[in-house]
Specification:
Strand content: 5-15%
Helix content: 25-40%
Number of strands: 6
Mean pLDDT: 78
Oligomer: single chain
Radius of gyration: 51 Å
Largest sheet: 4 strands, antiparallel
Order of helices and strands: EEEEEEHHHHHHHHHHHH
């Protein structure tokens, strides 16, 4: 720099008395830190004007060209005692063309705050899981909490309920129809609706049951099979009893709808007004039929006890099992029957007679379609069991009746049943 310059700048490094450079401002230069040891340094800039007045600026900096050093286990200001584990790692590479970053990774324990955060997340997850293990009732059957099979079953059930659920002016028949069928029809037509071959017709796909016009179906429920004899072309050996004086219009329509929508059947629903119309028409043609009893028109009246066929359960042996499965729905568990519908067996002269022929004949051939009158005051026709039961089974159920509910009569032997059967076949 010449003496004529008004201002000159001198650069000093650390405590050196000699400047590393003298420049006329503005000045630009390079400081090669590779020539300096790592650590703190000081750059001193002095600027002097033509009058000899001097300005000073100091810049402190730290040089770190050597390998990086990491220390784990001890920091500045720590107060320690005893033995402490210390981990030291050093890495370089600032001057390498291909530097591997993994060499700068210092193995260290997971920080405490990370463990605390992890435990908080786990605790929250467990709380949420337990809180939703038993979902509220309104969500229990939702897709979120139900299996695929349960969701599918619920969808089917919902569709059925919607089909049977009452809307404005609609008739709720599903529950009532199932109950009436269980109490009145299931004993002969079976849970599956298949009936008994050659004895009771099937309801599955029945022409009468699935017909668009339910009149004949309702008429059968109200009046039964009317005592039609096999000789007149009837295929079924059992006579269906009429329920006109036992069931109300709502119950008749409900059980008809149960049959028309079960076991794969799909037919138009029946309304109580339609049952009432058929009942009125039947009453007009036959004044003795078609009038419901007080019990039928009273929705609060208890239903007739239903026999439940419990496989393996012996109710008084073979006779008790047969009675529970075939006789109890009409004659009831107490043997008292149903007033105006089925006779009582308690103290019955037929059941307690010394000669069991009449009792056996009624079990074998039923009431024979006898018209209701002074000699037969019951609304129900007793079905015939001769082709369904063996001689041993007929004798067993007869003995059950002859020895139950306070009855005490001579036992019946299968040979006596065979004799009655043969005599009837011979026309005697």
């Amino acid at each position: 720099m010449s003496e004529q310059d008004p201002v000159r700048v001198e650069i000093y490094l650390d405590d050196s008395p000699e400047p590393i450079g003298s420049y006329r401002p503005p000045a630009s230069f390079e400081l090669d830190t590779k020539l300096l040891p790592d650590g703190p340094h000081r750059l001193l800039i002095k600027a002097t004007d033509s009058a000899g007045v001097e300005g000073v600026r100091e810049v402190r900096f730290i040089v770190r060209n050597g390998p990086g050093i990491a220390v784990m286990g001890l920091t500045n200001g720590d107060i320690v005692e005893g033995k402490i584990p210390i981990l030291v790692n050093a890495y370089s590479g600032t001057s390498e063309e291909q530097w591997e970053p993994r060499r700068a990774e210092t193995p260290a324990p997971i920080p405490t705050w990370s463990w605390v955060l992890f435990l908080l997340v786990v605790a929250w997850a467990m709380f949420y899981w337990f809180a939703t293990w038993t979902p509220p009732a309104q969500y229990a059957n939702s897709p979120t909490f139900s299996s695929a099979a349960a969701v599918a079953a619920a969808a089917v059930e919902t569709a059925e309920r919607r089909r049977a659920a009452p809307g404005a002016g609609e008739f709720a028949w599903a529950e009532l129809g199932a109950r009436v069928y269980e109490q009145r029809c299931q004993i002969c037509h079976a849970v599956s609706g298949e009936g008994v071959p050659n004895f009771v017709p099937t309801l599955r796909g029945s022409r009468i049951v699935v017909a668009d016009d339910p009149t004949e179906h309702v008429r059968r429920v109200l009046l039964g099979s009317g005592g039609v004899a096999p000789a007149a072309g009837r295929r079924w050996k059992a006579w269906m009893p009429g329920f006109a004086e036992v069931l109300s219009d709502e119950e008749v329509a409900a059980v008809a709808n149960h049959e028309r929508s079960s076991w794969g059947n799909s037919a138009r629903t029946v309304r109580p007004e339609q049952a009432r119309t058929v009942r009125s028409e039947s009453r007009a043609s036959n004044p003795a039929s078609g009038t419901p009893s007080p019990a039928a028109t009273n929705p609060g009246s208890p239903p007739t006890p239903l026999a439940r066929w419990a496989g393996g359960t012996r109710l008084g042996g073979l006779g008790g099992e047969i009675y529970a499965g075939r006789c109890q729905p009409c004659h009831t568990a107490s043997g008292g029957g149903i007033p105006d519908y089925a006779p009582s067996l308690v103290g019955s002269t037929v059941v307690t007679a010394d000669d069991p022929s009449t009792q056996v004949r009624q079990i074998l051939f039923g009431s024979g379609g006898v018209e209701r009158g002074p000699d037969y005051p019951w609304m129900a026709w007793m079905p015939a069991f001769g082709e369904l039961f063996s001689d041993k089974e007929v004798a067993a159920v007869a003995n059950y009746e002859r020895s139950s509910w306070g009855n005490s009569a001579r036992p019946v032997r299968p040979e006596q049943v065979r004799a009655v059967r043969e005599a009837s076949a011979a026309g005697r």
